[in-house]
Write a structure and sequence with these properties.
This protein is of the alpha/beta class and 631 residues long. It contains 18 helices and 18 strands. The chain is elongated.
């Protein structure tokens, strides 16, 4: 309360609010009553004026009935002129359908403020010996009279009534404002004293007091503030010691938390590296043994290969999350043809879709977008893989559509669909809609989470439209461009299909098992391999001019002190034409950032042999020729 009172009790704002609080109800009541009384008064004046006009017209009709019936024009004219002359009416008109028309006074078109009142002239039907009507008999209309009355006095009376109502209402409002102002001041004055006392307490002047402020609730508030100030003053002597003790305890806990965070980071990095090393070695040896496996051994080898692929996928997903958390991924925007993206996706998923009986349809419509091709491929790869997996022998449509100034790429399937309540959670980590048994062959529930984070990195979002048993549509909105697209990236499957790599490679790794497995694979691909266990051995071979190297593959961690990244940077200087490839299982953010800043090609353990072969295929003579043609 002490921190909020000075801001909340500023006298100008509070006094204004209190005045409004007092004036608004009174003003509303005064205006309503004034309007009601004024309306009643004006209505009464209007009814009186109309009744007077109707009475004059009726009186004239009664006075002129016999004369009009007898055709006594002179009497009728005298009657009309007499009424005008005496000011009873501004104009009088008497007429019938037999040709009698008497008028007295100015023409009706010249009477600006006169209102007409009409009344029929009636006679009672006659019977017996006399020709005059008998009272009480049937009525007979013989003509009409019209009387024009000047409403100047009526308008004056209306104006006077309205003025009186306004004066009464204004007087009521003024009295209400004065009363509310007086009461507001009576409330605000003690509150200002309380506010000033609280401000002094905030500044450290603990001897400030409100003093007497009357005998109402505000006085009780002032008394409470004084008691609070007294207690603060009494506790001030021990306050600094308590704060210092609490600060020291907080610093100690913060240090413990930071130490725990560092320990956890080191543990995750070490565990990730130690897990990736054997998985990487397993994958290399399994792919090396598959070509020579006997028919009896082949099923077991394929099972082992499937297990290593699943573990590799999980470790890769965890690495992607680490990279996103470390902010080491930054988009490199360039014009990209949608057709090139679709060609790569078809090369990656076409065969799998045909085996699953799924029809893949691609419609690029000649669109081009401004984006990071690699990051977009990561997103679309996951979306197309999920669509093929859930289509169940149906059809998957991947299309690019115009959406205003942008291009929307949609991946549509006819699978089981997603319920609306689940659509809010499919982008959560480890959440899967149709995998309650957590079958690892159906993924781990990280793909869409990573895709959503990559989409946000590209300043867009992944849209979802789905319904149970009606399929799903995932979409990605990207900015369109008319700029010439960059050269398409070579599809992995093209390079992987090379029958012979024919490369000279230098393999640097301190793990003999991984080194032997990698060297065995490279030799199967018709590569010539030199091996080095230490950085010193690698540098001696790099300085040997008689040795030729097309590719240098190096592990990040070489023994206790050797740094693979530093070694690759030296290798660039010694062999500028050789391609340097870093192989690492680390997930440490600062190390990943260093590798990115050095612009070194990174393969993350466990490396799938097909991926390694596809990458090396880009530096074969065929691969170099394909890249030259694309440039």
């Amino acid at each position: 309360m002490a921190l909020m009172l000075p801001a909340a009790l500023r006298s100008d704002s509070l006094q204004r609010d209190l005045i409004r609080l007092g004036v608004l109800p009174c003003a509303t009541a005064a205006v309503a009553l004034t309007l009601w009384f004024t309306h009643e008064r004006l209505d009464a004046l209007e009814q009186a004026f109309r009744a007077n006009g109707a009475a004059i017209a009726r009186q004239l009709a009664v006075a002129s009935d016999l004369s009009l019936y007898a055709g006594d024009v002179e009497t009728l004219r005298d009657l009309a002129e007499n009424m005008v002359a005496k000011g009873i009416a501004s104009r009088v008109e008497i007429g019938n359908g037999a040709g009698i028309a008497i008028a007295a006074g100015p023409e009706s078109g010249k009477l600006k403020h006169a209102r007409p009142f009409a009344e029929p002239v009636r006679l009672r039907a006659t019977r017996g010996l006399t020709d005059y009507p008998r009272p009480g008999g049937p009525a007979l209309d013989i003509g009409t009279v019209r009387v024009f009355l000047d409403d100047a006095q009526h308008r004056s009376a209306r104006a006077a009534s309205m003025l009186a109502g306004g004066l009464i209402g204004g007087t009521a409002l003024l009295l209400a404002w004065l009363s509310a102002r007086h009461m507001a001041r009576a409330v605000v004055r003690p509150l200002k004293r309380i506010s000033a006392t609280v401000s002094s307490l905030q500044e450290g002047k603990l001897d400030a007091r409100c003093g007497p402020c009357g005998r109402n609730e505000i006085a009780a508030l002032a008394s409470d503030v004084d008691h609070m100030a007294q207690r603060l003053q009494d506790a001030y002597s021990s306050q600094e010691e308590r704060i210092q003790a609490a600060t020291q305890e907080a610093l100690a806990r913060l240090s413990q938390a930071e130490q725990a965070t560092r320990s956890r980071t080191r543990f995750l990095a070490t565990a990730s590296h130690d897990l990736r090393q054997p998985v990487h070695a397993m994958g290399l040896f399994i792919d090396g043994l598959l070509p020579t496996a006997s028919p009896a051994q082949l099923p077991a080898m394929q099972r082992l290969q499937e297990g290593t692929q699943v573990m590799s996928a999980l470790l890769d997903a965890l690495l992607d999350i680490s990279r996103l958390d470390a902010n080491v991924l930054s988009p490199s925007y360039a014009p990209v043809r949608v057709r090139d993206l679709f060609d790569q996706l078809d090369a990656m998923h076409g065969a799998i879709a045909r085996e699953a009986g799924v029809e893949l349809v691609w419609r690029d419509r000649g669109r081009a977008v401004m984006t990071d091709a690699g990051l977009v491929m990561r997103v679309l790869d996951n979306l197309v893989r999920n669509a093929v997996r859930h289509s169940e022998g149906g059809r998957v449509l991947v299309a690019a559509r115009r959406d205003g100034a942008a291009t929307r790429i949609e991946v549509r399937d006819n699978g089981i669909g997603i319920a609306p309540i689940q659509q809010l959670r499919i982008f959560e980590e480890f959440y899967q809609v149709a995998n309650p048994q957590r079958d690892r062959r159906n993924g781990f529930g990280l793909g869409l989470s990573i895709c959503a984070r990559i989409a946000r990195l590209l300043q867009t979002d992944i849209g979802v439209r789905s319904a149970p048993r009606r399929g799903s549509t995932f979409s990605l909105l990207l900015p369109s461009t008319d700029a010439p697209p960059v050269a398409p990236m070579a599809a992995a499957s093209e390079a992987a299909g090379t029958t012979s790599l024919d490369l000279d490679c230098l393999l640097i790794d301190d793990d003999e098992a991984i080194q032997e497995g990698t060297a065995h694979l490279l030799r199967q691909w018709n590569c010539r391999v030199d091996q080095a266990l230490t950085a010193g051995d690698a540098l001696r071979k790099l300085r040997d001019a008689s040795r030729r190297y097309d590719v240098i593959l190096c592990d990040l961690q070489l023994g206790d002190s050797d740094d693979g990244l530093a070694l690759l940077l030296q290798a660039r200087e010694l062999r500028p034409r050789a391609t340097a490839i870093m192989i690492s299982g680390t997930t440490t953010p600062d190390i990943l950032q260093r590798i990115r800043e050095a612009s070194v090609t990174l393969l993350t353990k466990p490396v799938a042999p097909a991926k390694l072969r596809a990458l090396l295929g880009r530096w074969t003579p065929a691969g170099r020729g394909a890249r030259s043609a694309s440039l």
